Amino acid sequence: MSAAANTPGPERASLRTWVSVCGCMLGALIAVLDVQIVNSSLPDIEGGIGTGTDNGTWISTSYLIGEIIMIPLTDYLSRVFGFRRFLLTNVTLFLIFSAACAFAGNLGTMIVTRALQGFTAGVMIPMAFTMVLTKLPPAQRPVGLAAFAMTATFGPAIGPTVGGYLTDQFGWPWIFFVNLIPGSLMLGMLFPTLEREPMRLSLLKEGDWWGIATMAAGLACLQTMLDEGNQDGWFDSPTIVHLAIATVVLLTAFVWIELKGGAPAVRLRLLATRNFGLGTFANIMVGFALFGSVYVLPAYLDEVQGYDAQQIGLVLASSGLPQLLIIPFVPALLKRIDARVLVCVGLSIFALSCFMNTHLSFDDAGPQFVLTNLVRALGQAILLTPLTGIAMAQILPADSAAASGLFNMLRNLGGAIGTAALATVITNREQFHSNIIGQSVTPFGLTDQSFLTRMQHYFQTHGVPDAVRSYHQGEILLGKLVAQQSLILAFSDAFYVMGLVLVSAAVAIVLTRSASKGTAPAHG
């Protein structure tokens, strides 16, 4: 799976190599897409399998748990079973589990099949990344990284659009059936082009099984805590407290095992490399804002504007589709502009799009987000390719697969943390703004009295003749307006938090060392 460290490769990859790289990219896109395409259709799925919203979140949580656990283990397992055999097997299983999800008739079956689907999807993301780093020559590697960046940013942005359309037009099972088309194409591209490798089952005896067990259990507890924490009141809930304790104990044990072991399953020591450590931190922050923006904007359109899944998808398309036009030009920019400058510009533009949404009002609906979505699309499109090059600049070929798993797992984990953190920000800031506004809105203020009098007259002329009842209806309406304005201000604060997170990522990039223009990583 890795080329010899000092063996010069060809200047241009063969057609066969490009077909296999494109096949892997298709798999990475499917894996990322399958998170958001399901999230946008959760209410329909919950109704279809007969469960409530509290339990329905497990349909997404189980997939994320499986994916996050499998991503860092892919390097080790692909060495055991062989890159080609391991990838093709998991693609086939992914398609089987996708179909099984479509036929699930109850919550238990759906959770199990989604978890298994997540495990197999977790294989496809780092393997696409590894293909770029190990199979493409340095001169063409930025093109491969640009394609990978497209899967990482375009997938989350376009997922709600695809999910909303399929659900409204054909029914929710089709968000799972649709995987069969690109999945079959992927198998057709990879089966004849990937090189056969022998299995190395002897590596199973050397497996870091304690590290794998503590990581899997710790990440499962962490993801569950993040998904359930906000609705359970975080540490007011004994369940969340127990999950937090288990997370700290298990992940602390995992870090200790990986740092002390001679053959760790996850190479945490790679984070000590300056560019990889700082680049990975920036990548986590990008994941926070990337997945966070795909959570916050749909939530705003749903809760404030009352948009349905298809309408939300159409709004988000303005941040996804432009990236298809922008990302192909990034490799050319890398030949002329220092990667660190390009990343900082991308992060600044992404942050600017978030700060542009910090003054929301009830008049801000879908059309008002087109400009900020276009700005966000530009920032996202130009930052991930050079960011990956910076992080991998000091990574040797022999370490590229391990670095790939760690880099991608932590971005997804950053996204999970970001979604949970922003949900908590919205809840807490809504309460804060409600208290502040509530202190100034009283029946004794002249403005409020005037409003209540007008509403009393309105309701009296529209079917509520009793003066006391019509006045009370005015008070109820005033309370709803206060709650609505508090919620809008809370969403504004969430966008502000994302902007600050992206600024911190830019600071980390400033501290990295320069990578060669047009090549990434340097030692590939």
Provide a descriptive summary of the structure in words.
About 75% of the residues lie in helices and about 0% in strands. The chain has about 525 residues and is mostly helical. It has four domains: about 1-205, MFS general substrate transporter like domains (Growth Hormone, Chain: A, Up-down Bundle); about 210-265; about 265-430 and about 495-524, Up-down Bundle (Growth Hormone, Chain: A); about 430-485, no CATH class. Helix 17 (about 400-440) runs antiparallel to helix 19 (about 465-510).
Short description:
With 524 residues, this protein is mainly α. It has helices at residues 15-39, 42-49, 53-56, 58-81, 83-102, 107-135, 141-170, 174-177, 180-190, 209-229, 238-260, 274-303, 309-326, 330-334, 339-355, 370-392, 400-440, 446-460, 467-510.
Highlighted features:
Growth Hormone, Chain: A, 524 residues, disordered N terminus, 4 domains, mainly alpha, single chain, globular
Shape annotation: globular
Named at the architecture level, the CATH assignment of the largest domain is: Up-down Bundle
For the record, give the distance between the C-alpha atoms at the N and C termini, rounded to a whole number: 13 Å
User: Can you count the helices?
Assistant: 19
CATH class of the largest domain: Mainly Alpha
Structural class: mainly alpha
- Provide the β-strand percentage band: under 5%
Mean pLDDT: 85
Main sheet properties = none
In the CATH scheme, what's the topology name of the largest domain?
Growth Hormone, Chain: A
